Amino acid sequence: MGLLATLALITLLPCLCFAPPLPLRSSSASSTNPATSLVTEPTPEEKVPAEESEEEVRPPTTEKVMRATLRAAHTPAKHGRTDGPYLIAQRTIVEDYCGWGWVRKENQSWRQATWIAIEGTPNLCPIPHTFLPKPEDDKNQQYRFYGEFAPYRAYEPQADMWVDVFILKGFMSMGPAEPIRRDPPAQASSRPNRFAERGANMLKP
Amino acid sequence: MRFWLPLALLALATPTAQAHDIVLISGGPALRSFERYRTASHDKYWGNFIDSAILRAKELQLTIAPTDQIVWLVFRPSYQRRSQEDQDDYLKVLEERGLKAGITPIYFDNKTQLFTLLRRDGSKEKPKISRLEYFGHSNKKCWMFDYSNRVDGGALEPLVVHVDDLDQISGKSFTSDAECISYGCHSGEEFSQRWRMIVGRPMIGAVGKTDYSEGGIPKLSTGKGGTWAF
């Protein structure tokens, strides 16, 4: 038994105590520092800074995936003249209703927002959804709108309403937002009219 | 002398055939970029209001007095914008079509210009209107010359004739027996009555929608129980 233990010590001790053999000269030619030459060189693909590799590993959030797959992601982040005062605008689509959506000032709530129709400025800034396949593709997208209100209004034929017109000079895309739970204006002269109440004189076919 | 005097008086008393104008108004088409994805898409064809007006002019030419003249008023900006969109020159096309029918378009760019063109005093230069017909977009309260052309699903204020604007059209510009027709949708539901009350001449209009899709003179849309009213 003692002989066996001695034999085992004789065979294992060199392995544990002696340094590993030096690498060949050719494999460490580029390295000047013998200490670094001992470490296996990573391949270019593996040579990634620590921070980046962390990002790569981090899985994309559901929100990021949703944003990236939205058609509205193809709207330019910025277009036209984007300096000076701006309004926060949110695209809202109401079937058979004239207009683009809501706008408000930065410090206002959506309750104080104004429903607008929109006109682009030729050769400067078109309406954002014209960059997309369909007009409704930027539904509930939020923007910063640069421009001014027109001196005229637009006529909304379904509700017989007059709607403010915003002339767009530039915009910045701010991404998707929660839908605004508010109906566009409908009032006033859309009510039954005293002239109409008299009834028309029907022509017999 | 005794013989000539009664003859001269008779000649003075006999009414001479007075020239009148027959006015046809063509509104503008919508842009396809606004209308393409709508459930009820308008103006797939750009020239609905042009072709129908020209056809009507041809019909009227067979019946009107030789002294009467057809005046064709066309809302220009919408055709310019639709031309840009479709990469075509529709103003040139409509002028050529009008020429073949013997009518020349007179362009207007807003409602103020239209009101000026409709202002008549019965003189030789501005004869009274004996007939007025409108081809274009409308609802029960409004003629919309640029519907869905500059703003999506609507029309700009200076480019519509709302019932509230009708007091700018004088009944004196029309003959006492003038006939007016609006071939736009829903005009017979209110616009016609307001026209009759304010302008003082009856106007026939549609109760319900009108349909230009088959070409020719617009018809009432089928299956909606529409009718013509004044």
Structure description:
- The complex is a heterodimer of chains A (205) and B (230).
- With 205 residues, chain A is α+β, with helices and mostly antiparallel strands.
- Chain A is 20% helix and 24% strand.
- Chain A has five helices and six strands; from the N terminus they run H-H-H-H-E-E-E-E-E-E-H.
- A five-stranded mixed β-barrel of chain A has the order 2-3-4-6-5.
- Chain A is elongated and about 125 Å long.
- With 230 residues, chain B is an alpha/beta fold.
- Chain B has helices at 4-13, 32-35, 48-61, 76-86, 90-101, 111-118, 191-198, and strands at residues 21-26, 69-75, 105-108, 129-135, 137-139, 142-144, 155-156, 160-162, 174-182, 203-207, 210-211, 219-220, 227-229.
- Chains A and B meet through strand 4, strand 5 and strand 6 of A and strand 7, helix 7, strand 10 and strand 13 of B.
- Strand 5 (141-156) of chain A pairs antiparallel with strand 7 of chain B, so a sheet runs across the interface.
Keywords:
heterodimer, A: alpha+beta, 5-stranded mixed β-barrel, 5 helices, B: alpha/beta, Rossmann fold, 7-stranded mixed sheet, 7 helices, 29% helix
